[in-house]
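Question: Send over one sample?
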Amino acid sequence: MSQWGHEPRCFSSSETCSCALFFSLPLCLFLHSPELSPAHSASGANFCSPPSPLPIKYRHHCSRSFRCYPEGEKMEEEYKREEGVALLVIVVLATLSLASLFVAFSYYCYISSKVSKHLKSLKEGKSEENEKAAPFGSGSSSGAGGDGGKAPVVVIERGLQVFNYKQLHLATGGFGKGNVVGHGSFGAVYRGVLPDGRKVAVKLMDRPGKQGEEEFKMEVELLTRLHSPYLLILVGHCSDGSHRLLVYEFMANGGLQEHLYPTRGSCGGISKLDWDTRMQIALEAAKGLEYLHEHVSPPVIHRDFKSSNILLDNNFHAKVSDFGLAKLGSDKAGGHVSTRVLGTQGYVAPEYALSGRLTTKSDVYSYGVVLLELLTGRLPVDMDRPPGEVVLVTWALPCLNDRDKVIQIMDPALEGQYSMKDAVQVAAIAAMCVQPEADYRPLMADVVQSLVPLVKNRLSKRSSSCSTPNTSKPPAKPE
């Protein structure tokens, strides 16, 4: 062991230079100092023995750190400062990362809480709406749902109740023949009673395929957005599997056609509808068409307006029904839409039947035919009539503008119930409505304005006659 306290080691010249580069230039001075022993300074020689002690003037170079030099101290301070800055940056970035994670987690918790509260309020609101809007099945365990004592769930969609087939099957007594109250373009109509006691009319679609589906969608769409006291109210609908059903308010007196042409009963085929009731029905039906033509944009063309589609309630107030064939008209004044010819024989306007050009004036023609039915008590097409009288319009039109001939075409059941002036005025309105040229037909708004005074006058006369005792005999009615 040497006097420096470690085992002697031999260094090659290459190792010497490496050590010099690592320990800085002063070490090289130490290794190659001329004051070293000659044995140690020989070029390429191995140092196999410890070096001789350095002179005092070189001993301050022997330290392996840079503390001995001002440059070394500055570098060390700079390294420490850079380490401190790096550590500070790392700490700041870590703090920011933690803060970001905390903010993100807090925001997530806030959104989750808000969404859950919103969903909960929606569920509560929907359950309350179902309870308020639909008492359907609230009473009996044998309700239309048939769930063994559970009240059936009633779904409200756009203001309409959505039924399933089982509910309506039970409400109509299994769609029995005894509950059939009529037939429409859509299918058979059945009388039904909901568990809450409401009477309804259920129309069962008997037209499979695309046409039936289109009619169903059209009627639901129209009656959802059309609201008038002169249009039949749609209560709900059913699209359960292949079944398509419409549920309407129940009209106790059925269709106008049934009262104009009774075929059995004590009346012996003579209508019991008096003049005042017929004029009231004519006015209310006209108001229904006026709403469709004038108060809806684009206008709605009914396309199947006829006496069987005018329904009557307990007081014989009229409402227009059956919108399965309805069509949206043109927004342009005098515009038309081209479509295939649909409707009922005897009610179809001639220009529509020939060319398929459909306008609101096509409905005006159909209304004129109904007005002729109210005046004459005859069917639009009656094959049992003699030649020349089979088609109502063809037979009646030449007489409508002749005061003397008007009395000849009037329904015998109305004898003594009307004034000649009123009959001539109504006949003139009907004549204008059934003109062969569509441009010569009036608007439904004009028709309404013409009928209003007639109905008001009759009602005022009726009220005055009721207040004054009448000792005269009523006019005799034909047997």
